[in-house]
């Protein structure tokens, strides 16, 4: 890759070659889309996925967009990049960080693609100040359901598609490229872990930090937290720095040491920028314990290059297909288990209430907390929320609550009941849940919660023949 620290013509010579390659890749994708059977639903031929909801089996060919996985162009003066939709955040960080930039929000798992984070939802510890990934998008190049490629911006001819595309999960089309804002990165991130024995006190501290972007006179650039139990919870406060802050070397949680353990063990810490961004990926937060990867002997034998979320996802995919552990549990007389893998956005003012309810009703710990607030208070053309399919209220602080495990099905209950209880509680508290995992809403409720009135006319315009499944069909009916 050419350096951008020289003159503008260096940037242009680099980008022109990639722009030409991008144009060829787009032409190929358009041809392949047109060649797919018109009477079968279109799917992407992807090697990896971060979806946890089931998907219907497909035997026919999928749309291969794997070539669209690079940075096309970087403008360091403006702090803007044009990137391809299938570029993973691992690829984006590897290409942008050497030039001193990162996306405004880098979701926690390396194989999440930027197109997936925009047409779905992404979140991370910078979201309390930078919002959600789609809020940093200046322009979208989209292959629509009709097979036409359009360029959508916040205003203009395709503004309706631009605003409805986030949270549409590929039901309107696929992002071929995105022009995004970037932020400057430092060499390191200095961390401070603050313990709370009372959930209400933790939530109050979140409000203070979101309002002031500091805590006890220290600036805060990154904010998330972990609830280990009702009386033990932590906020993890990070800030960019070019110093090791007196630490002899940056901590390394990509091998034998485990990041989430350090939250309880260390009040202060320093990681390289890259290791901070991927601190959760090595152990899939804490979910690697389900595979024995946190046992000291297994840890020493497990190849370091396979300590990453897509390895664990491959194991989960195998279990989903073959049910080996479920069969063993039945042989052992153990109760059936219900998967409870969700991220939900709760208004900050109701977060303590939700956590208390959750700890009473759902036997899952730890719990991840990630504060978030929309960057912009603007509305879509003609009025309404800026992102109608996930209508968080502009100006209101929220906390993303993430919990990823399974629970035994209690006597007299059935699989799905705990998730339905969660959906009802989230709705009562004025929140929303992400749609990457199981959803049980009836169609009318789903339509009201996820912007059906805004979605339907855009769907009719950009996918008039219905080649792509609707959002409800994808998110709830698993089509």
Features:
single chain; 479 residues; alpha+beta; Uridine Diphospho-n-acetylenolpyruvylglucosamine Reductase, domain 3; eight-stranded antiparallel beta sheet; six-stranded antiparallel beta sheet; 16 helices; globular; disordered N terminus
Distance between the termini: 41 Å
* Estimated helix fraction: 25-40%
Count of runs of 4 or more consecutive helical residues: 16
| Oligomeric status | single chain
Task: Give the structural class.
Answer: alpha+beta
Number of strands: 16
At CATH level 3, the topology of the domain at 8-184 is Uridine Diphospho-n-acetylenolpyruvylglucosamine Reductase, domain 3
Strand content range: 15-25%
Can you describe this structure?
With 479 residues, the protein is of the alpha+beta class. It has a domain at 8-184: Uridine Diphospho-n-acetylenolpyruvylglucosamine Reductase, domain 3 (2-Layer Sandwich), CATH 3.30.465.10. It contains 16 helices and 16 strands. The strands form 3 sheets. It has an 8-stranded antiparallel β-sheet, sandwiched between helices. Strands 1, 2, 3, 4, 5 and 6 form a 6-stranded antiparallel β-sheet that branches. The protein has a two-stranded antiparallel sheet with strand order 8-9. The model is unreliable at 1-13 (pLDDT under 50).
Brief summary:
The protein has 16 helices and 16 strands. The chain has helices spanning 8-35, 89-96, 114-119, 127-130, 159-164, 199-212, 259-265, 273-277, 296-301, 309-322, 324-331, 348-361, 417-428, 443-449, 452-462, 471-475; strands at residues 71-75, 80-84, 101-103, 137-144, 149-152, 173-184, 188-196, 214-215, 218-219, 222-229, 232-241, 268-272, 337-347, 367-372, 398-408, 432-433.
